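Help wanted!
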Amino acid sequence: MSERGRLMGRSVGRSVGRSRGRTASRRVGAAAAFTVVLLAGAGCSSKGTPDTPGSTSAQTITLDAAKQRVQTYVDQIAAIFPVKPQLVPNGALTSAECQDPDDGGPKGRYDASIDYFLRGVPAAENPAMFAALRSYASQNGYKSIEDNATILTYQNPKDGFRVGMEQSVLGGQGLSLTVSAPCVWPNGTPSA
Amino acid sequence: MAQPTDWRILGFDSVPIPQDPDDLHTWARMWHDYADEIARAQAGTTGLLADPAITGWMGRSGQAFKDACAPFPGMLGTAETAYRSVGDAWDDLSKQVRTLQGQLDGYWNQANALLQKMRADGGLSEEDALTCATADSDARMVELMKSSHMETRSSLGQDGFLNALDALSASRLALEPLRAKMPNLYEQYTGAKAKCENTINDATDLASRILKSAGGTGAKSMDFDQRFAALGGSVADLVLNPDAALGLEDAMFPGPGSDSSEVSWWWASLSQAERDQLIKEHADIVGALNGIPCADRDKANRSVLASQLTSVQDRLKVLDASQPDKDTDGADWDKWNAERNALKDQLKGLQAIDARLHDQNGMPPAFLIGLDRQGLGHAIVAINNPDTANNVITYVPGTTARLGTIGADISRSDRMVGSANDASNGTQVTSSITWVGYDAPQSIEFDSPFADYADAAEGKLRDFEAAIRTTHQGAPSLNTIIGHSYGTTAIGFAMRDYGLPVDRVVFVGSPGVGVDHASDLHIDPSRFWAGASANDPVPQLNTYGNAALLAIPIAGAYLSYLNDGGTHGGWFGQNPAAPEFGGQILPTANGKPVTDGGSHSQYWDPNSPSLKAIGQIVVGGTPHV
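Answered by r_m:
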């Protein structure tokens, strides 16, 4: 182990190239700040936008409904493209518990997402495919999350669902479409 | 043609040479095949002793081993000769039996013709004719005729029978020279048989002595050990495992400290049957051994998982049936409650793993390549087989990572595989390994600020990464190690102190990685990415003097205190997502506000810039920022 990483006993970090000579007690005090920062937010987690499915302690759509809506989005978006793609699943519809829910709401809720390869689209048509999604997002008031040469992601502010299209960096510039739901209560209401 | 069954006419009570020469030839072929196998073993042994792994074994024991093994090719050559001589002996016997049986059959046919003539000449039954034919003289023949009143049973009547006596005598006389040949023929047969048996006995004795002295008979292997020791070797060097005395199987395992390439070589040297047996009988050892292919570790660990599930559930049932009274037995209740909570936590993790392994539902296959319940429990779960994938991720989670919480981390691996598939247009297979193979800190306040968890993880991470390289099949995979939170610290320490055999590195939400610059991680900074959400407090723990956090009075005060002059610090060294660190910046979303608890765990959100960027990096691409 290098000198930098060699600590005296069970000392805290800050062992790298700093020589401020903190005392152990001050370090433990600093460690407590770790907790304060993270836990202070947890106590303020009831904020949010109550009319969105992903909102905080208010009711949401159920997880099953979110999964259904994810598929509805896929069908809607697939229909807007100038070249009708063949949808080939990349994995399955998945759901995971929201660790730090994007909307500031509480834990215990789940997101959902599904991913498809868009087959049968010549790479030369990719710009037109991206343009179609941009146009659709603009017409429907979607908010841009990411927009660069290979990734285009929007969020529908009305329900928190996101739609992302990606051009692969390998394998012939193929396209894929990911639709994801915000965090929702499995049964639509805050769990006990 | 079938052999005659009644040989009394030639003086035998039973078939004189009962062996089937074809059967004897089959025996000969079997022994010759065995000799051929030994010859191949001899060639293999000669080659093995010339292998650099043996010739390169230095030191006194190495030399002694080479000296002790030197006789092996010669021994096997002698054994081959011995066993081949057995085959030859069977072959010789087969040929002699075939020849002698041919001669015997010829004589029997002649004798039988004379017997049938006697039956016809004397009007006799088969038995009465045989009595006459086997008499050793005419006088004896007449005596037997009279005593048995043979004339009364002759179909020719008494006069006719008496008129046939001369003919009967002539036939009996003709039989005598035939019978006279029998002793010699039979002696030839017994001689051939004895020669074959002697050859077999001598050869098997010789072979047995060879095998014994070669150490091939297990418990009687001391001859080799003694020779080895006499040549200056330490017998301890021949023992691969300190527990070897517990059983032959245990002794087969490479010892502690063996690196993954040694384990891999050893595993490949076993037959499939041996591997299957070890997986069945020592699943916990096989499942944990770096260097064994992931598919085989998975087989073993699935067995371990099943037994652990049963064990935990059974223990919980016992606990549930024996709850102490909280009011009267407070100390016992506390102990009971602690054990029960710990078991329920582990059960949650075991069940999450079990579900992912068995309920794929359109998802890629999962492989369990590590599992134990020591402490809070550890597990290593891969999505797709790392040994055959084009790209391999090792994902090291941070604070609160343990067996009980692995379900959420496996979900992150699933998402990274999905993102990598998007980035490669499904043309490559990416495996993501969730590595909870270390004791991660569990408390942000009391554990995470300390370095000893990362110190203890270094060696385990180094060995695992080396093993993943060793067991990979075909062209080398593109390996990326990804850390989150304290997981980045564990990775950073290992890279700083050992270097890791990875091609790319991604850190998110890092509290520092033990160095101040990417170049100190023994990897080109162009292959290093780090991301920190603007609202993730952890990477900025030492730098937040801004208004957002100052709005939280206590935290703001602490963070002001921690602020090291606005140099993008970090708890365990320079924040790797800061420009000063010298790596590439991983795009991230801002995440939820710090006033709402911050955004420390949103890097794997579906449709997030960070998840998509990770997918591009692990297949060899470069994300746009």
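OP: Thanks! One thing I noticed: Residues 216-222, 239-251, 543-567 of chain B have pLDDT under 50 and may be disordered.
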